[in-house]
Amino acid sequence: MGERKSTNKYYPPDWTPDQGSLNTFHGSHPLRERARKLDRGILIIRFELPFNIWCNGCGSHVGMGVRYNAEKTRAGSYYSTPIFKFRMKCHLCDNHFEIQTDPKNMAYVVVSGASRKNERWEEKEGETVSVEGHSEAQKLASDAMYRLEHGVEDKTKADEAAPRIARIMAMNDEKLEDFGLNQLIRKKFRGEKKALKAKADADEEIQKRASISIPLVEEKKEDIVRARATEFAAGTSLAERKRRRREIKSQSVFGDGSKMAKVTVLKTGAKLDGSIFSRGRHERSTGGASSGSVDQHRQLLGIKTSSSSKTSKS
Predict the structure, then answer these.
(1) For the residues of the chain, what is the DSSP string, one character each?
(2) Which of 40, 189, 196, 259 has its CA 20 to 30 A from that of 102?
(3) Cβ contact 46:40 at 8 Å
(4) Rounded Cα–Cα distance for residues 35 and 31 (Å)
């Protein structure tokens, strides 16, 4: 590290060792801009607020740990310990506030320009038992009156705290059964896990039916009311269309049963019979073919002729 610094320093050609360091040669201070007020005993440092304060200029709250460029000066001494004062400007307004050290109480004190937010803890407010020192123990052992007063005070505090201690002990006794509480909590967790799994399965089924991959949101009461108020046009379902298609495929191409086929054949025969009779009349009038051809056509169509009926009668 030292070698790097020594090799990277630039010494101008007109510098000589008798001129001192480079800072002396250039007429500058090693702290640069931080030492611009050093002739007045002011050093610029980075100061971090040790507690929360209220700015008296703008009334804004400035939290503990906010850093400022502060002017550090010596304000006095407490015995041989120096007292330093830090002056800084609020970053929200043009107000300046000052904070100085308090070596006697080992703390910081707001001098001007701001007010400290009172968050200090007092032993009396916490109602904790203070640990007695060696001098206190000696006084209790040697002074009977002090020991009596101390005992009366301790008894009064114990009587005042007895109901509260009893309530705390009762609450602890109620929650003493760890196995039962653990079993109850695990049962609750299992129920919640099943409900979440059922909901996830239902959402997955809806996503498959709708062919979507986006996650579904929680169902709300407004959505239920709006869905019930929505009406859709009546249409045929997919299952109904499939059923009708199966029925059509299972039917005959000639219609419904032999009755329809017979009616169709009879109608066709009647048309042909009319055309044949008209043709026979034309042939008889012109001396053409005999009526035997008509009988043959009737037999092909399954229509009984008059001669066959006479034969059957005879």
Answers:
(1) -HHHHHHH----TT--GGG--HHHHHT--TTGGGGTTGGGT-EEEEEE-SS-EEETTT--EE-TT-EEEEEEEEEEEETTEEEEEEEEE-SSSS-EEEEEEETTTTEEEEEESEEE------HHHHTPPPPP-HHHHHHHHH-HHHHHHHHHHHHHHHHHHHHHHHHHHHHHHHT--HHHHHHHHHHHHHHHHHHHHHHHHHHHHHHHHHT--SPPPPP-HHHHHHHHH--------HHHHHHHHHHHHHSBTTBSHHHHHHHHHHHHHHHHHHHHHHHHHHHHHHT---THHHHHHHHHHTPPPHHHHHHHH-
(2) 40
(3) no
(4) 6
| Mean pLDDT over the full length of the chain | 77
Mean pLDDT value of segment 287-314? 49
Per DSSP bridges, beta strands 67-78 and 61-62 are: unpaired
Residue 65 to residue 50: CA distance in whole angstroms: 6
Instruction: Name the amino acid, one letter, at 110.
Output: V
CB 94 within 8 Å of CB 57: yes
User: Dmax of the chain from CA atoms?
Assistant: 170
Which amino acid does the sequence have at 192?
E
Give the pair of three-digit tokens for residue 63.
């939290």
Encoded tokens for 40: 């007045």
* Of the listed ranges 4-13, 70-79, 235-244, the one predicted with least confidence: 4-13
Q: Distance between CA atoms of 83 and 114, rounded to whole angstroms?
A: 19
Distance CA(247)–CA(29), nearest Å, equals: 104
CA distance 59 to 117: 12
Whole-model pTM? Answer: 0.37
Q: Which residues pair with 101 in a beta bridge?
A: 108
Distance (Å, whole) CA 309 – CA 117: 130
Check: CB of residue 44 under 8 Å from CB of residue 70: yes
pLDDT value of position 268: 54
Q: Does residue 310 surpass a pLDDT of 90?
A: no
